[in-house]
Amino acid sequence: MGLFVLRRLGVMLLTAIALTFVVFYLTNLQPNLEKLARTEGSVRMTEEAVQDWIAQNGHSGSVFLRYGQWLGVVPGWTYTDEKGQMRGRCFAIGQDAAAAPDYCGLLQGNWGFSTFFKTPVMASLGDKLAATGWLMLAVMLVMVPTSLILGVLSGMREGSATDRTLSTFSIASTATPEYVSGVVLVALFATAATGISPILAEYGLIEPKKTLFLASATSAMDDITFWNFTLPVMTIALYGIGYIARMTRASMTEVMTQQYIRTARLKGVPFRTVVMRHALRNALIAPFTVIMLQFPWLLNGVVIVESLFNYKGFGWTLVQAASNNDIPLLLACSVVAVVVVLLTQLISDIGYVFLNPRIRLA
Amino acid sequence: MTAVAPDIAWDPSQPILEIEHLSISFFTRLREIPAVMDFSCTVMAGEAMGLVGESGCGKSTVALGVMRELGKNGRIVSGSIKFKGRDLARMSDEELRHIRGSEIAMIYQEPMASLNPAMKVGAQLAEVPMLHSGMSKDAAWKLAREIVADVRLPDPDRIINAYPHQLSGGQQQRIVIAMALMAKPALLILDEPTTALDVTVEAGIVDLVKELGQKYGTSMLFISHNLGLVMDVCDRICVMYSGEAVETGNVVEVFDEMRHPYTQALFRSIPLPGADKNARPLISIPGNFPLPHERPPGCNFGPRCDYFQKGRCDASDVPMYPVPDSDRHETRCLRWSEIDWTAPPAKREVKQKAEIGKVVLKMEDLRKYYSVSGGAFGGGAKKVVKANETLSFEAREGETLAIVGESGCGKSTFAKVLMGLETATSGSIMLFDENVQSTPIQKRNTDTVSQVQMVFQNPFDTLNPSMTVGRQIIRALEIFKYGKSDAERHDRMLELLDLVKLPRAFAERMPRQLSGGQKQRVGIARAFAGGAKVVVADEPVSALDVSVQAAVTDLLMDIQRENRTTLLFISHDLSIVRYLSDRVMVMYLGHVVEMGTTDQVFAPPYHPYTEALLSAVPIADTKIIRKRIVLEGDIPSAMNPPPGCPFQTRCRWKSQVPGNLCETEVPPVQVLEGGHQVKCHLSRDVLAQMEPVIKVAAE
Fold first, then answer.
1. Does B698 contact chain A (CB < 8 Å)?
2. CB contact (8 A) between residue A268 and residue B97
3. Which residues contact B595 (CB under 8 A, 6 or more apart)?
4. Distance (Å, whole) CA B18 – CA B42
5. B301, B314 in Cβ contact below 8 A?
6. Kind of pairing, strands B400-404 and B566-571?
7. What pLDDT score was predicted for residue B346?
8. Conformation bin of residue B66: beta by default, left when phi > 0, alpha when psi is -120 to 50
9. Strand order of the sheet with strand B86-87?
């Protein structure tokens, strides 16, 4: 087991390096750097001045060397201008170049300086990740149990009325993208003029001029309440519920036709117990991988929802970083995404082994 | 201890199970498909009833009908199933649930599929008494352990904590049996319980079932297509054909004095000792099994019956007629009293024995090792599987060489190496003086490929489902570069269809429109398309029904006689091997343990493994007396073979060999009289003292 995890971690590391290099290369393409020069320096810089700025700020040279610097395995760049003042990756202007370390990259804990937020990347990303973490936790808590229950209920009697109803719901919910369902949910629950809020207000169930839920989740950054957090959570969860429920249903219907289910029934096991004890564990093997795949997908799915509900988390940051050409922040986001994807896949593989006794580690 | 008091008093002299005029139909969108019609049978306490018939005759439907497990589409249309006097067909689901598992238990065909892969064996066993008699978990597990020991599984403590996939097929079936016995049921339904198992394992299971039946006084409904097995296990038999019971009675009576043409035809189509491919060939039943919605009027067997009388047999439904002076013997034949049942079959044509020519295939010291990795994720130490070990033999033109052995003995690996799908680790294969052992099939020239062809086990999977039959044969001809034009190949394809006795119209049909036997004929046509000289037939008839087996076997024999083909017949079915082969090679764990002519191998002296194998094969003949030798344990894993003789772990003759020779040395090949080879340490004297396993009883 230990050896297996170690080997998987090794492969993960290699994958992470390859993936981050791809992102690094794409974000550090020449037009991008020119754009950066103009935003950081001056919009009216000449073509020549742009090239100079790029060279003087450590953006020239081989892409591999620059990637190495960012990673922290190649010494950081330095530049001495005509006035004899030194600039470099590892120290701020005015600081003593000699006292600064030679290497300062990811490995040394230096994630760079966000050009848009004007703060170190580490600091700004930390809060955002925590915020998104809460959102994802809430989504998972809603999505996984709901979808499994829906899937099992519709899969245990294939073709029954329950199955048809629940399947229709699952297909509809998974066929609706977040930007549609988000808008629909807001219109239904979070406007004082339309939807059900005015009706509820009329009956005196909620205060007049208020809505059932809040259409903005900004306040949830400080204090998560049912009122401000329901809509973003539901928007993300709805899509996933349908998807996982479909997977679970397919897996469940297949398991229910297996001979060992017949064996259990012919042993006189009541239907409920057949489903709970004999079918469920076997039926969960396939959706488990899908659920684990939902984690990385959530990370990207939150981009839309966080922008829609103005919730300043990871997804929102990613959008800001991309639209403002904030290269260090973009890179940091990609590292986080890569690590989350790879870690969840590792967990999914290990969990699969525990669910399925036929695969046991030697 | 687990006895559940029956709800109403039940008199043990009354039948346990009484099925009366039962009809079961399956309902599809198009039509109602009757699966079982007017079926009646009675099982008394402690009696074993055999239900025999070909696939699709409705025998499994009857079993599932008794359990009321007919799926969404199946329904009991009429009739009653009385269990201890109560009608199961009218029971509520809740009442039924209490009977299932506690009073009626079932044993299934595929033990692996019928055990829950994600639950420990002990938990699956303990569930039964916990459900039906409210036993505590500890007590139930203790009982499970007892019953596991009762079904003679070694190391019950380890077994109850194992998952099904950690057990061998035979062990799994014993677990299924243990599960059925957990609540000491009054009736046990066995649905082809040994079909998926090897013969020596089957023998062990059959013994166990018989013994437990006697020990607990359980009645049995034993479903099988194997007449020999039914004779071994059952007291009474019911022969089914196309949804109806056609004959029922005491096993000995039905076997010796059958009173229905179908039963008679069935017995004539199975290879019993004494049948011979030249002098006394098998007689196959003409025609095909009618589809459930295309049954003929009157007698269902009419169109295939030798005694059919127009206007009488097809006039109206035939009822069951009791045979006087018998033990509840009944037949569904109008003419049973008119037919002379002792008359020998009319159309038995004697065929010329094919002449055996020069050597076409010669293998010497062939070895094939595989290296496999141990761990689930590709880790672990590399292990070597010795699939074939020092294989040497010759096959001659026009000869049938049978290769016999149980699963895992290396017979399929041998076929793959010969075909070139795998290359040998060492040794030589000479095919017409050409050395092919290290030439994979991609590098063999067209001639070699077309000369060595294969007929596969499962005709259902080996034909491309989206190509017409004719097209598939033409495709083979194209690959073999036969003929100059498409027209020429088309003509040849039609000739091939004639050769395998299929109507020419079949060229335009899709594989799904063909029956199993017809598909296998197409497979044979394809194998012979390039004028194959050596044909490897890997269990070509084991997936087919008994009545079709005979026809396909005969076809192979006819083509062989005509083309002087060398046939390597791989099989585990010793009856058919005895019937058609000239020479036999017996394999065990990659070794050839015995080789000789068919007469030499089937008569003493035997290799101890051959002896056990022969004794394990059930024979459907009341006049044959068999010595029972049941092998203990399972075949050792080829990854970890025992030292010395491969068979030493299960050999009953081991004590006759001085010292520990068997454990330390691989035995040498002894050549006995007439070139009969036996790979055994036993001395010639001991070998000479062996008694025949199969004897014909004195009249």
1. no
2. yes
3. B393, B583, B584, B585, B586, B601, B676, B677
4. 4
5. no
6. parallel
7. 65
8. alpha
9. B32-43, B17-27, B74-83, B86-87
Cβ burial of A82 (10 Å; 0-12, 13-18, 19+) is: exposed
Q: Using CB atoms, pick whichever of A260, A285, A362 lies closest to residue B376.
A: A362
**How high is the pLDDT of residue A146?**
92
Task: Render B107-139 in DSSP notation, one character per residue.
Answer: E-S-HHHHS-TTS-HHHHHHHHHHHHS---HHH
- Residue B198: CB atoms within 10 A of its CB come to 23
pLDDT at B26 over 50: yes
Phi, psi of B34, deg, nearest 5: -70, 125
Say what percent of chain B tops pLDDT 70.
94
**Residue B390 banded pLDDT, cuts 50, 70, 90:** confident
> Which residues lie across from B33 on neighbouring strands?
B26
Q: Are A144 and A233 in contact (CB under 8 A)?
A: no
Provide the whole-model pTM.
0.77
What's the pLDDT band for B4 if we cut at 50, 70, 90?
very low
B42 touches chain A (CB under 8 A): no
More confident residue, B439 or A171: A171
Q: Quick check: A358 and B102 CB within 8 A?
A: no
Q: Where are the alpha helices (DSSP H) in B528-593?
A: 546-563, 574-580
Confidence of residue B101 (pLDDT cuts 50, 70, 90): confident
Q: Give B549's contacts (C-beta < 8 A, 6+ positions apart).
A: B269, B270, B541, B576
Reference B208, options B228, B224, B188; nearest CA is B188
pLDDT tens-digit map of B223-255? 888 888 888 888 899 998 888 888 888 888 888
Distance CA B151, CA B155 (A): 12
Q: What tokens does B399 get?
A: 């000869």
Inter-chain contact A260–B100, Cβ cutoff 8 Å? Answer: no
- pLDDT tens readout for residues A84-117: 777 777 777 667 767 777 788 888 888 888 888 8
B116 interfaces chain A, CB cutoff of 8 Å: yes
* Predicted confidence (pLDDT) at residue B18 exceeds the cutoff of 60: yes
Q: Which of A4, A257, A260, A352 to mutate to test the interface with B (most CBs of B within 10 A)?
A: A260
Nearest CA in chain B to A255: B116
Residue A7 with chain B: CB contacts under 8 Å: 379
C-beta atoms of B380 and A260 within 8 A? no
Min Cα separation B159/chain A (Å) = 15
Please, which residues bridge with residue B248 across strands?
B238, B330
Q: What percent of chain B has pLDDT over 90?
A: 1
Identify the DSSP state of B629: -
Strand B74-83 and strand B86-87: the pairing is: antiparallel
- In chain A, the N- to C-terminal Cα span, in Å, equals 8
Alpha carbon distance B493, B498 (integer Å): 9
**Residue B118 in contact with partner chain A when CB distance is under 8 A:** yes
DSSP B126-179: HHHHHHHS---HHHHHHHHHHHHHHTT-S-HHHHHTS-GGGS-HHHHHHHHHHH
Contact B473, B526 (CB under 8 A): yes
Count of beta carbons in the 10 Å neighbourhood of residue B424: 23
Quote the mean pLDDT of chain B: 82
Cβ-Cβ contacts under 8 Å, B135 against chain A: none
The tens digit of pLDDT for each residue in A294-310 reads: 777 777 678 888 888 88
**Parallel/antiparallel/unpaired status of strands B236-241 and B104-107:** unpaired
Three-class DSSP category at A120: strand
List pLDDT tens digits, range B270-292.
887 777 777 677 787 877 777 77
B615 in Cβ contact with B629 (< 8 Å): yes
Closest CA to B246 of B312, B326, B305, B331: B331
Please give the pLDDT value at position A172: 92
